Amino acid sequence: MGMRWKVLLSTIALGLGGACLIEGVCYEDTDCEGDRICDRSLGLCVEPQPECRSDDDCGLGKHCDPDTQTCVDIACTRDEDCRSELLVCQDGRCVFAGPIECPEAMVAIDNRYCMDIYEASRPDATETDMGEDCSRAVSRQGVMPWWHNPMDSSVFDLFKQACRNAGKHLCTEQEWFTVCIGPEGHSYFFGDVFDVETCNCVDTFCDDYCIEHGIDLADCPLGANCGYTFESFHDVPCGTFPDCTNSYGVFDLAGNAWEIVETSAGGYQVRGGAFNCAGARERLKCTFNATWSALYAGFRCCWTPGVDPQP
To answer: Are 51 and 71 in contact (CB under 8 A)?
Structure first.
């Protein structure tokens, strides 16, 4: 938890009753009682807003669960269960009847939706600069990814709007996780074995630093967090690491910038790790969710035919 948050929460507490910490101050959802969740932009526990109230609030192949008020996949045994002529029942779930034709620079995920191949970047981004045009998100290799530090609810809204302006939507927690673990169910985006050279993490450039500075690799400390020793970590253009991918064909889902994903409750999670993260072996895991705000937050967009407009 960064100092900015501590100062903010202390100010809130003092303003509402001396030095006593007000009820409901939180850093993450587990700090809240009952069904309340943590609004990290305020540091306060709030009642979750329902994702849906009826089936009409959900996209194709989904219906509104009345108990959780969230959109869930329709369990099907026949095509008619999917409630759309665009969908067919396959292995107990609804998928599109024909192969999805994804927009440019996107790939189809299990014939259910499309995901940007590369991290989101700004339209005027270059190989060395992320640019200034925040009008929409693009998926383009060889340019710097779009990130913000620190992360808060206003940045979350900006990322969502950037995807909408591109005719897409901010990838959801489930969409992102499905791609991260891959069809094989791996621990990392790139497999089950962690390797600092595969995706851009804090320790990726330690050996390069030693070589460039004439340090024998036998004497070069290449253990965890060595990037802090040499201050060698940095972000790189999208798609720089050719092996930072999996069978779905997207790149950089782990490392480089964190990826903000939308949750079913309408909040966000911070996934995938980043180029400056200590403990990369843990933070690049598909299951890891960062709960602090002082981080390099990026994102990527997804697209569902029949739900999102055509980009």
So the answer is: yes
